[in-house]
From TrEMBL:
Classification lineage: Bacteria, Pseudomonadati, Planctomycetota, Planctomycetia, Pirellulales
Annotated EC: 1.8.1.4
Matching PROSITE patterns: PYRIDINE_REDOX_1
Organism per entry: Aureliella helgolandensis
Protein name, entry field: Dihydrolipoyl dehydrogenase
Cofactor binding summary note: Binds 1 FAD per subunit.
Amino acid sequence: MKRAEHDVVVIGGGPGGYVAAIRAAQLGFNTACIDENEVFGGTCLRVGCIPSKALLESSHLYHVTQSQLGQHGVQVGSVGLDLSAMLARKDKVVSQLTGGVTMLLKRNKITAYHGRGKLSSVDTVAVETAEGPLEIRAKHIVLATGSRPATMRGVEYDGDRIGDSTTALNYPEVPKRLVVIGGGYIGLELGSVWNRLGSQVTVLEAMDRVLPGLDHEIGQLAHREFQKQGIEFRTGSWVEGATFDGKKCTVQCKGSEPIECDRVLLSTGRVPCSDDLGLDGVGIETDRRGFVPVDENFQTAVQGVYAVGDLLGGAMLAHKASEEGIVCVERIAGMKSHVNYGAIPAVVYTHPEIASVGQTEEQLKDAGIEYIKGICPYGASGRALALGEPSGRVKVLADAKTDRVLGVHIIGAHAGDLIAEATAAIEFGASSEDIARCCHAHPTLSELLHEAAMAVSKRAIHTA
C-alpha cells in the first residue's frame, strides 16, 4: 500500500473542499485534496449550479428570440431549437470551469488525489484510487463531501424517465409533459428551462405554496409570474408514487387522479453525503438526518477532524460552503475569522430572478421584532423599463428602533446581482438611511434598492 503525509487533507473537491484546500495552501500548509470524480468542482460545477445556469441562459435567449424581440423592433424568421448544441454549450462551460479548478490546485501546489476517501483512523484517510489503495496521514482532516438529491418513497427512480436534477440536465429531447415533484428552487429552475423549450410543466408541492423558504410576499409574486409563463402548480399535493411502464410515466398524488407524463423530475431537497466516510469508526455521530455536528471551529467530536458545507445542514449553498471552508482552515491556523450566517444571500435563477438576504417578514414577526419596510416596484425604474423588465419588486426590512437593515428581498431582473449591496449592508450593520445616503448611478437597477431604502423612512421620491 502506498502512503503519503500532509498537514491538511480535504476530502471533497467541491466549492467547500477545493476552496478550503487553496486557503490552507495560502496559509503555508502542505495540503492535499481528494475527490472521487475524474474532475474537481463538486456537484456545483459538474451537475449543479453551473450547468443549470448555462441551460437557464440558453433557454431564456431561445424564449426571448421566439416571443419578445419584436417589441424591440427586431424582426427574425422562424426560430429553431438545436437541443444537442445547447447541451454541448453547457458541457463546454462545465469543462472550462472544472479545468480551471485543476489549474488552481496545481498553481497552489496542492496534491490532488482521485478516489474514494474515508477515515480509517482519527489522523488517517484511506483512499481507493485507480492505481490501488493509498493511505494518507494528516494532522488536520477536513470533510467536505457535500450532498446528493433526496429520494422519495414510492417514486421508482430509474435515472432516466424518472430522475433527479442531474438527469434533467441532459434530457435528449424536450418532453411533451414534465412533472416536477417539489416546488423548491432547483425544481423551479429546471422546470423553467424545459417550459421555455416547449414542455408542459406541472409542479407538485406538498406545502401550500412554492418556494416555502422565501419571504411570503415575494413568493406569491413569483408564483403568479411563473403561472403567466405557463407552468402549472398544484400545491397541497402529496405524491404517493411515480412509475414508468415503458411507454409513459404515472404520478399518483393522495386524493387526486393519476397524472400521466413523459418524464418526472424528483426535486424534494438534498441529503448530506456523510455515509461511507468512516465516521462511526472514529467516534463521530451524525444526527438523524445524517448531518455532522461541529463546534465554532468547525471541528467535529474528534480533535483534528473538521466538517464544512452541506454536511452541516442549514442553507445548502455553494457560497456558504466556500465561506465555511475558508474560515475552517483559518481557524486551524489560529485566526479569529467567522461566518456571519445572517448575511448569506440566496438566489433563484428563474426569470424573473429572486434574491434575498437576512430575515423575512415572517421570521421577524415570529421573533417579535418590530420592523418597518420600504418597497420599490421595478416599474418605477427607467433602466428596468428600457430593458423591458418592468415586473418585480425590492423590499427592505429595517429595525423600527435602530433602522438597522434586517432583510432585503428582491424579485426582478438581475436580482442576484443587486443582492450583493444588500449583503454588504447587513454584514457591516448598515441602516436603511446608510443605503439611502449613498449616491446610486442613474439609470441603473441599483436605484431600486436606493428607493426602497428611502421608502423605509417615507422619503421615497419616485414612488411617493
